[in-house]
Amino acid sequence: MSAHDPNLPAQAEQEPIADPGLEPHQWRPTDVDPKAEKRAERQVAALFGLSALSAIGFVVAYFAIDGGTENPTRFGYLGAQNIALGVLLGLALLLIGIGIIQWARKLMGDQEIVEMRHPAASSEEDREATLAALAQGLEESGIGRRPLVRNSLLGAVGMLALPSVVLLRDLGKIDIPALARTIWAPGMRLVRDVVGTPIKASDLEVGDLVNGLPEALFPTPENGYPAEEAHGSKLQVNKSKTAIVIVRMEPDEIIPGPGREDWSVDGILCYSKICTHVGCPISLYERTTHHLLCPCHQSTFDLGDSARVVFGPAARPLPQLPLDVDEEGYLIARSDFTEPVGPSYWERG
Hints:
CATH superfamily of the largest domain: Rieske [2Fe-2S] iron-sulphur domain
CATH topology of the largest domain: Rieske Iron-sulfur Protein
Strand content: 5-15%
Oligomer: single chain
Number of strands: 12
Distance between the termini: 78 Å
CATH class of the largest domain: Mainly Beta
Order of helices and strands: HHHEEHHHHHEEHEEEEEEEE
Low-confidence stretches: none
Number of domains: 2
Helix content: 25-40%
Strand order of the largest sheet: 3-4-5-6
Largest sheet: 4 strands, antiparallel
Radius of gyration: 34 Å
Number of helices: 9
Structural class: alpha+beta
Mean pLDDT: 85
């Protein structure tokens, strides 16, 4: 369209879009019917009450349903306790949300407000007007005039604290001595991860890195280890604490730490596989530098120098497992780790 169209009146050119104004206000049933208002108030309070009951049900399910033993109660192939806790906590939050939405739709003030645009920097008058509007909104919410809604909401939100308190029980107290010990024991063979085959020192070549575990996690009638340490949750805990990496390098490239001069066998060294930063499993090995890299946060350890930290956020070297060989030439542990494995925060008092 050209800058000036002679076919349009002058007023249309000056104001091409007329102010449509506001549509006539449509009153809600709760605005004109006291019975509908009371009914809506009871509905909102009922939603908040059901939320509180769901929070209480969470606590009951936590203690009533077996979820912490070797044979927990199951719902199909899933843990019944986890399902109950998730559903009940979700309901507690969902019902509060639905109640607040119903409160806003049916009971809070329902008046159209027009606000003109203003500069980014508000004047004192505007700030005072904003505070007055907030006070007006608080008044129109009816929270002061509707004690049933207010008290039921406070009760529902208060009940949400119960699941939080109960879940804190699961944190428990960190058992530092238990974390400092593993099932490694003198004479226990090192075996390959997954397959569980023992490792002969003569099978490793310079530059090799092998992921391993203790033989006790692969019990057989021949080795005589009890099966309870390699079953269920105990197996997973033991794997997380005893996983190792075995490397072989030239003996003259090893810088042993004090008192560790005899912890290697013909250039074969063994370290914990668990990063001392936050506990990630690591096995990214650079054979020429003997550096082991953690993929999570790039902590780098020099395996030729007692797994000293050369880069990254890890606070201490990887724990080293003392090695020896048995009469058949298989690698065995001389003892357990002499320091806690895993993240450094385990050692904090």
